[in-house]
Amino acid sequence: MMNEPHETGPHDPPFDVGVDRRTVLKAGLVALPGLAGSSLLFDWLTRLTDVGTTPDVEPIVSRYDPAAHRWGFVVDTNRCIGCGLCVVACKAENHLPEDPEYTRTWVERHTTTAGGTTFVDSPDGGVDGFASAPRVTIPGAMITDTRFVARLCMQCENSPCTTVCPVGATYRTPDGVILVDEERCIGCGYCVVACPYGARYLVPAGGDTPRGVPGVADKCTFCYHRITVGLRPACVEACPVGARTFGDLNDPSSPVSVALRENPTKVLKAALGTRPRVFYVGLEGEAEA
Amino acid sequence: MSPLPARLRRLHRPHIARPHVRLPRLPRFHIALPHVALPHVALPHFALPRIAWRRVVIRTAKIGTLTVALSVALGGAAFGAVTLYSAYGPVRNEPNTQAWRDLTPRAAGALVCTSCHASEATAQDASIHADVSCEDCHGPAAAHAGDEAAARATVLPVPKGGICASCHAAIAGRPSTFPQVDLAAHFSGGSCLRCHDPHSIVAVRPPAVTHPLANLPECTTCHAPGGLKKVPSGHEIVADAVCLACHGHAATRQP
Predict the structure, then answer these.
(1) Is A234 close to B62, i.e. CB distance below 8 A?
(2) Which long-range contacts (CB under 8 A, 24 or more apart) does A204-208 make?
(3) Mean pLDDT over residues B154-175, rounded?
(4) pLDDT value, residue A88
């Protein structure tokens, strides 16, 4: 009996699993709507129980669609006068700590000598202005260029800070602004050291705090509460010489798009591949940092 | 065509049917398993006879199918649980983004100021400072300009003249086209606002001296409290050399 040839049809399954094709298809027909239904149900449940965080009221301006925008920033170093009003305005707007060490934006003075070396001084982030002479540590060096460079978070498209955050507290919104979730941030400071632009700090206790929570990482948000209701960031409003330009890169008529079209620009530390959304005019003469 | 060698020609006999050697195909399933007396020794699973091993395969496949079906169901439920706005879902940061959005702006913007302070705004709009924000000197004004009557009654800080220097002091690094002054050489007699209107920025020249200055003693000999000539009210006595910095002849006085 064992040695009898056993004829099998060409369409027989290679082995019998006790479950035929019909059963599998039936199960699939039941399972797929079940999956969709369960996700919808959970979505509905979470929305129902999430009253505190998602307000029902409409914003003052029409509903903001983050996916429709791509915020960008242009700093014109040919215009900047180093007055520090942007730093003052940012501190006031965002309830930053008094100490000038904790700042979201700051102004540097870049002094380039004939040898190609660029010296940077930024006393207290430029909040109180600058000394009349730049700080150059090479005695007798011939200064070829001195200019002010306003600094802020680059809102990198390829951001090291979001990559290193161990708890997913810092993230990128669809409009290209990197924000910090103060409820998730554990204050480890990893993002502070990971940022190649030094744009982050940990909010100290005992003083003004942007969101009322000390001990978490903080950084420039492009004044997210302003730009999402149609205002410009506070530093852009404050700049008396128009050295800071903000706008939507998706809109070809926005001030940033115009500035990018009309000027040669560069980004800081381009070799790192962070793809910043902050562009600089007038830094062509400087060696790559 | 060369003939085959003799030893191959002997094998090459196409006219004789080769015996059909067909190996018996083993039944693959639906078999009545023979009662094989297995030795009562603990064998590793790969040492099972082929028949018994096939049985294991079938059973495993059945259990596997059930497992897959169960995992799909449970996985779907888990996906639903972590979906969208839940604490670990793909858009878990949405509430935080909303919280950042809900912060209240403190800087109002120049248009808000203009609606009440028209005269100052008009003067400034006609000046070289047309693009300078009101809040650069007066501080953030959103609360002051808000709906609260109490907040509107608050007075924003009136800046001292020293704030001019933060932009117009001559320091290295400012664009050469930007108007800068050496503060000590420009005016050392006090606040910038003594000459410059804070909004139109135009320097209001003080009256120039009309009498000849030759062979005269110091200004304060006559122009002093109790002197022959009156000093304009609100004008403190400054050192003699300083007087002419502002009141000197139009041709000679400093800018």
Answers:
(1) no
(2) A204/A97, A204/A99, A204/A102, A207/A97, A207/A98, A207/A99, A208/A95, A208/A96, A208/A97, A208/A98
(3) 82
(4) 93
pLDDT value at A126 more than 80: yes
**B25, B170, B174: residue with CB nearest A6:** B25
The backbone region for A122, taken as left when phi is positive above 0, alpha when psi lies in -120 to 50, beta otherwise, is beta
Contacts of A283 (CB under 8 A, 6+ apart): A77, A110, A149, A266, A268
Ordered DSSP codes for B136-185:
HHH---TTTTSS-HHHHHS-PPPPPTTHHHHHHB--TTS-TTS--B-HHH
pLDDT at A59: 44
Please check whether residue A234 touches B, CB under 8 A. yes
| Residue-averaged pLDDT of chain B | 76
Instruction: Give the residue extent of every domain in chain A.
Output: 66-131+142-157+220-281
Residues 206-245 of B with CB under 8 A from A: none
By the 10 Å C-beta count (0-12 exposed, 13-18 middle, 19+ buried), A5 is classed as exposed
Q: What is the pLDDT of residues B49-83, one digit of tens each?
A: 667 777 888 888 888 899 999 999 999 887 776 66
Cα separation, A194 vs A216, in Å, equals 15
**ipTM computed for the complex:** 0.76
Nearest residue in A to B31, CA atom: A2
**Whole-angstrom distance, CA of residue A102 vs CA of residue A84:** 15
- The reply to whether A241 touches chain B by the CB within 8 Å rule is yes
Q: Provide the 3-class DSSP secondary structure of residue A113.
A: strand
Which pLDDT band, with edges at 50, 70 and 90, does A55 fall under? very low
Higher confidence at residue B17 or residue A257?
A257
List of chain A residues whose C-beta atoms are within 8 Å of the C-beta of residue B140: 89, 92-93, 234
Name the pLDDT band for A60 (thresholds 50, 70, 90). Answer: very low
Residues of B in contact with A168 (CB under 8 A): 92-93
| pLDDT above 70: residue B202 | yes
Q: Is A79 on the interface with B (CB under 8 A)?
A: yes
Domain A66-131+142-157+220-281 top-level CATH class? alpha beta
Mean pLDDT confidence for A44-48: 67
B104 CB neighbours in chain A (<8 A) are 225
3-state secondary structure of B186: helix
A106: phi then psi, degrees, rounded to nearest 5: -155, 165
DSSP string, A39-103: HHHHHHHHHHH-TTTS-SSPPSSSPP-GGG--EEEEEETTT-----HHHHHHHHHTT--SSTTS-
Closest CA to B175 of A148, A281, A129, A237: A148
Whether residue A93 contacts residue A102, with contact meaning beta carbons closer than 8 Å, is answered with no
CB-closest option in B73, B76, B95 to A54 = B95
- Chain A: residue whose CA lies nearest to B142: A93
- Rounded to a whole number, what is the distance in angstroms from the first to the last CA of chain A? 84
